[in-house]
Structures are given as structure tokens and as C-alpha cells.
Amino acid sequence: MDSCELIERWLSVFGEGVDKKLIADRVTSSGNHLWHLFTWGEVPCLSGDEARKAVDALEYTNAIRFYNGYSNHIEKITVVNKLSAKKVDRSKESDVYVVAEDFSWTYIRTHEFDLGPYLCIKK
Fold this sequence. Notes:
The protein is of the alpha+beta class. 28% of the residues lie in helices and 28% in strands. The protein is built from four helices and six strands, in the order H-H-E-H-E-E-H-E-E-E. The protein has helices at residues 3-14, 20-26, 48-57, 85-89; strands at 46-47, 62-70, 73-81, 96-100, 105-109, 118-121. It has a six-stranded antiparallel sheet with strand order 1-6-5-4-2-3, sandwiched between helices.
């Protein structure tokens, strides 16, 4: 999956039901981050230590990890084994996104230490 396909799928799954104009204005426009999808209260999610505990409790073998998400641009898409919240927190990359291979959940550690991390689980 290339970066455009991954962004499109990520946004369609986790932004389902969110007004497309809102996504265009607050998430994918220049100067915004993909994780802004969760900062405006439009998408239910866990945040902070609650998100960290919940992501550590998820049962999965592999997930997709990517970085950045600034101005609708992502980098270094890789399949990874299960990651702990602590390992994601220690990453030197500014924004870290982890998404289940089936897109049933996503976890984001932002570069803003007072925002996030976020965990969104799709039912």
C-alpha cells in the first residue's frame, strides 16, 4: 500500500461520518496533522494514559506504522510486530501512527506532549 492509499483508507475508516469540509479544513489542509481528526471532538477516542493502557491491552501480532502526517504527508510505512505504548513514546520521530492491519484501531503519539496519545477503536 502506498502513502496516498494508506492516508485515504485511514481517513475513510477513522473519519467515517465526519463532514468532508471539516476534514479538508482541519486535518488534510496545509499546516495541519492527520491526528487533528481526534483533537476536535468529532471522533470518539481515548487519550492520554487511558489510551496508553488500552493500546497495551490490545491483542494483535502485526500492525502498520508510519510517521509524520503533517500536511497530509506520511513517511516510512512499515509492518511491525506488537508495540508497547512505552516503545512508541520513546520514538525519536515527531508523530507516530500505528494502525491495525484490518484498520480496526489506530494509535497516535503526537509531537505535542499535552495532546494525545490517541487510540481510536472502530466497533
